[in-house]
Each structure stands twice: as C-alpha cells, then as structure tokens.
C-alpha cells in the first residue's frame, strides 16, 4: 500500500456529489485536497457554504478556469455531462488522472452517447482508453486506468444485482429483464428545478423517463458485455419523496440450470470478498435507510414461483451510486486500501 499523499482536485465542489466527495476525502489518510472549484462562488471558503465541513476543509472554492488542476495527481469531475471531456486531454497530457462522475466516459459507442446526451463527443481517443468504474466487476482494468467513467447511480444497482447470474449464464433471455428503480430527490442534483421543489416532490411519487432514460443504453451496454448476448431490458425509474437513497427491484426469468442451484449461496460466494456489497440473509427486505451515508450496497434475493427471481438492491445514490464509488476507484488506481476514506457507517435513523 502506498503511503505518500496524493493531490486531489474536484471540479464542481458545490453540487451534491461534489460535497459528498469532500465529506469522504476530508478524512482520507492519503489525500491532500488542493483545488475545489465553483464558477459562481470562487473565493468563498468551502466551510462557509457547507458548515458541516468547518474544521475539516480550510480551502476556498476556486474558479475552474484558473484553478491549478494540472498540479493534481487526480481530478474528479462532479459536473454536468460534457465538462470532463472538454478538459480530460489536457489533464492527461499533464499526467493527471481523471474520474468523471458524469457520463462522458461511460458509453464506448459515441453515436449512442450523442443520441442520448445531445452533444458530440469531443475526445473519442480518450474515451477509448476509459474504464467503466464498477470495482466489483472491473477491478483489474481500474488498477491501470488513467480515465474512469464512473457509472450512473441506477446502473450500479442493476449491474451489481445481476452480475452473478449473468456470469454463470443463469438468466433465460426469452423474457426481458425488468428493472423498476426508485431514487431520492438528491439524484437530480442541487441546481434549482421546479420538479425538485419541496412542494412538488414531497408527499408524492412518480415514474419518469418511461419512454426512454439515458441510463437504459448504459445498463444495456454493460449487461450485453457481461452476458455476451443481446438482451431485452426494460427500465422504469421513479422519483420518491426522500432525500437520498435508491431501491431497484429487478425481475428475471431463470434458466433450467439455475433452478437447480442455490442462488443465495452463489451470490454470497461471488461477493464474499467485497467490502461494499452485502448479500442479505434469505427473506430479507433491504431498506434504503440501512445504507444511508455509506458506500454499502445491499442485495436480497427472492424466488417467485419456479421460474422467476426477484432481486432487491439498495444503495445511497450519492455514495455507492456516485462519490463513494468514485473514491473506491481512486483507491484502486493509486494502490491504496480500497476501503480508505470509505469506512463510514450508515446513518440511523
Ligand atoms: N446526484 C446523484 O445522485 C448522481 C449524480 N451523478 C452525476 O454527477 C454529476 C454531478 O451531479 P450532482 O452533484 O448531482 O450535480 P449538481 O447539479 O448538484 O452539481 C453540479 C456541479 O457542477 C458545477 N458546474 C456546473 N456546470 C459547470 C461547468 N460548465 N464547468 C464547471 N463546473 C460546473 C456546479 O458548480 P458551480 O455552478 O458552482 O460552478 C456544481 O458544483 C452529474 O453529471 C450527475 O449526472 C452521478 C450519479 C449520481
Ligand atoms: C432522481 C434523478 O433525477 N436522477 C437522475 C439520475 C442521476 C444520475 O446518476 O445520473 P447521471 O447519468 O446523470 O450521472 C436522473 O434520472 O436524471
């Protein structure tokens, strides 16, 4: 394990995933935070905006146009889609690693990226060397990566939920895989929007993106790779009246071979060495509050009749679904203990 401190920059320090990175990295033993950007609040001490960080972070926000990001060892982009790809090439040329929490480096097919994100991809060369950042599925490639496309929040639940079955060929693709997913409102970010006003989003619940959500192609591409087969996948996200947390319920049809297998034991074995994936006891019904504020993802399996399996997966969308997973990726890239900065217990109540 390396002991030297690395210099870390965060572009987009005023957003929800940005401040979550600050919360986790402030106590990371191998990290020295050196630049935290904001366009509108440059010059403001970070702790003035986020008093919870008083005494832990002494820096002020700096303007992303002038911040000395090339002096960092790694830069996190906790920004809207399109920002990281405009700066990645220059940072890589300065030997700085890049971890993007947005979608710039998640989809290898630039035509699909352009279709869903309505912008051309400005650096396909960088994209081609980017690694999709789910450590439990892709750890070896992450070790040597210079650019990480940190996954979307919904994809992390679906992919970790399904991976053990797909790796064994236990899903019968004659029926579609269905994922019915629910997110807390922080998933939409901190920017002001009518849909996330208290009076609009509390005491109510709604589906959205039913005709198509940009995480569908992201999940589909990864499922296809894991299954080595084309698959039908139905995905419906929902907005629910809580601040943080995500629960995905996933329905699959099992192959005949899978029906003879102890699937709970298969999951326990697949994730036995994974600190951040917890396979719950038989019959468990995981709740989002059991992972709140932590990098933990919990999975429960429920057989339904002889042919179907229902998976229930929970995570904190801002931690394992975003900033925590990004820190986990950083730890792997720099040879640190994967748990550094991430041994945070869930908050209760
Ligand atoms: N929220 C979630 O649960 C998840 C979010 N993500 C992704 O992570 C990224 C960040 O999300 P989130 O933190 O929720 O978003 P927010 O809207 O809360 O924050 C966005 C941040 O980006 C900064 N910013 C905006 N435009 C630019 C720009 N052109 N150049 C530099 N900085 C800019 C803003 O700061 P300022 O205006 O002060 O410069 C702000 O700090 C998004 O791509 C999102 O899709 C991924 C997984 C989960
Ligand atoms: C509740 C809510 O609005 N969630 C966001 C997903 C956040 C996320 O992970 O999305 P990115 O792919 O943009 O990084 C959404 O559905 O747009």
Automatic annotation (TrEMBL):
Subcellular location, record wording: Cytoplasm
Active site: 153
Primary enzyme class: oxidoreductase
Example GO molecular function: NAD binding
GO cellular component annotations of the record: cytoplasm
Pathway where it operates: Amino-acid biosynthesis; L-arginine biosynthesis; N(2)-acetyl-L-ornithine from L-glutamate: step 3/4
E.C. numbers: 1.2.1.38
Keywords: Amino-acid biosynthesis, Arginine biosynthesis, Cytoplasm, NADP, Oxidoreductase
Organism superkingdom: Bacteria
PROSITE patterns: ARGC
Pfam family, one: Semialdhyde_dhC_1
Chemical reaction(s) catalysed: N-acetyl-L-glutamate 5-semialdehyde + phosphate + NADP(+) = N-acetyl-L-glutamyl 5-phosphate + NADPH + H(+)
Residues in Semialdehyde dehydrogenase NAD-binding domain copies: 7-145
Listed GO biological process terms: L-arginine biosynthetic process
Keyword NADP in record: yes
Keyword Amino-acid biosynthesis listed: yes
Function: Catalyzes the NADPH-dependent reduction of N-acetyl-5-glutamyl phosphate to yield N-acetyl-L-glutamate 5-semialdehyde.
Protein name: N-acetyl-gamma-glutamyl-phosphate reductase
Organism: Methylotenera oryzisoli
